[in-house]
Design a protein that fits this description.
The protein is mainly β and 346 residues long. It has two domains: 1-32; 37-342, TolB, C-terminal domain (Neuraminidase, 6 Propeller), CATH 2.120.10. Helix content is 6%, strand content 39%. It has helices at residues 4-7, 10-19, 27-32, and strands at 45-47, 61-68, 73-79, 86-90, 95-99, 106-111, 119-124, 133-138, 143-147, 165-170, 176-180, 188-192, 198-202, 215-220, 225-230, 235-240, 246-250, 261-264, 270-275, 280-285, 297-302, 309-314, 321-325, 330-336. A four-stranded antiparallel β-sheet has the order 1-24-23-22, with helices on one face. It starts with a helix and ends in a 10-residue tail after the last strand. Bound molecules: 2-acetamido-2-deoxy-beta-D-glucopyranose (3 copies). Residues 82-84, 98, 100 line the site of one 2-acetamido-2-deoxy-beta-D-glucopyranose (NAG). Residues 82-84, 98, 100 line the site of one 2-acetamido-2-deoxy-beta-D-glucopyranose.
Length: 346
């Protein structure tokens, strides 16, 4: 069913409008602006219509997706009544298992695995007895760690409390970055050590540098910078991962709507940013070390109206992009068209 959101557009329209840069949707436009033709070569992704194998797996509102590239697993969390909340797929789109025990209202997730341990973290914005927490599960749905005070929102640091924790990012060192949150009492970015001690904290509600209004998504780049989608302030803010020092912000790409999700491609060359109500994914040039420079859009994937891409994740091995869409109630997979563009050795 859900697949028809895209299929209805037809294969031709799909190639013309979905994959190509939306601004160059049609040959007339191309003829008029030949000097911009190079942009059409930046056709970076195609939609994988075979993922997942059956769209009927999605029975709720799909808020987030996580990829365990080490073990070839894709996790999807969805909201709804009397449904499995977490679905575990293979990267080929086969459903392996699902669970809903101790998951109230999932918002964001992150897969953090070692060869010995397969796990997924989920931020839960529910107001029931499992809500206001950031939880770690093993791949079979056993709860192995709870951060926050279950069922109780708050601003405290000891013990740590959250209010609508939006998303998290876990480094290979197991240091954790949490954005808290999605419109609650807190507007902060917290770095925790692998044994859950607070290493640093930035932010409070506001528009000044290092303040946030709905810090919605967080990720790291390859040179030690933390990127936060500061959605309400319509900008990405950037911090030093060791000190928490504010390094700058990008806002010129987000005048229409703030970013709801931010991730880097595995080669570190691009950032992919989702804009929810615009139903748009933008592929931005990643800045080199040092000066952040300016925000520059390389390509966009314009999804049909009301698809509403909420959060996305990128497979670190293959570069595939998985997008959790709360309007279309599905997760779609986009694969890089030209793997050498991204420098993969697949
Ligand atoms: C949990 O999921 C099962 C189906 O997998 C469903 O029958 C059950 O109602 C769900 N429970 C809740 C509390 O949503
Ligand atoms: C944060 O500030 C904005 C205006 O700057 C205001 O609209 C919003 O309600 C504030 N949020 C909280 C949680 O105080
Ligand atoms: C998207 O639109 C809805 C409904 O108009 C609004 O409530 C929401 O705040 C918007 N979200 C963003 C990120 O602009």
């Amino acid at each position: 069913m859900a697949r028809r959101w895209v299929c209805a557009a037809g294969v031709a329209l799909f190639f013309a409008c979905l994959v190509l840069h939306s601004h160059f949707c049609g040959p007339a436009v191309l003829r008029k602006r030949p000097f911009l033709k190079w942009r059409t070569e930046k056709m970076l992704y195609r939609l994988d219509l075979g993922w997942p194998r059956f769209s009927e797996y999605f029975t709720g509102v799909t808020f987030c997706v996580a990829v365990d590239s080490l073990n070839g697993l894709v996790y999807v969390a969805q909201r709804g009544d009397n449904i499995p909340k977490v679905l575990v797929f293979t990267e080929d789109g086969y459903l392996l298992r699902s669970w809903n025990h101790t998951v109230d209202t999932p918002h964001g997730m992150f897969a953090s695995s070692t060869p010995l341990e397969q796990s997924v973290w989920i931020t839960d914005v529910g107001s029931g007895s499992y809500g206001h927490t950031v939880k770690k599960y093993n791949s079979f749905g056993d709860l192995v760690q709870v951060l926050g005070t279950p069922g109780k929102k708050g601003t405290a640091l000891n013990p740590l409390q959250f209010d609508n924790p939006a998303e998290l990012y876990v480094e290979d060192t197991e240091d954790i970055y949490i954005v808290d949150g999605d419109g609650g009492l807190n507007n902060r970015l917290i770095k925790l050590s692998q044994n859950f001690m607070i290493l640093w904290l930035r932010g409070e509600n506001g528009t000044a540098p290092a303040k946030f209004n709905i810090p919605h998504s967080v990720t790291l780049d390859s040179v030690g910078r933390v990127w936060v989608a500061d959605r309400g302030n319509k900008r990405l803010q950037v911090f030093d991962k060791d000190t928490g020092e504010w390094l700058g912000a990008w806002s010129s790409c987000f005048t229409e709507e703030g970013p709801s999700s931010v991730r880097f491609t595995p080669d570190g060359k691009y950032l992919i940013v989702a804009q929810l109500n615009l139903s748009r994914l933008s592929i931005l040039a990643a800045p080199p070390t040092g000066n952040l420079g300016h925000c520059s859009v390389i390509s966009t994937i314009q999804l049909p109206d009301q698809v509403l891409p909420h959060l996305l994740e990128i497979d670190r091995k293959t570069g595939a992009v998985y997008v959790a869409e709360i309007g279309a109630k599905q997760v779609q997979k986009f694969v890089p068209l030209n793997s050498h563009v991204f420098g993969f050795s697949v």
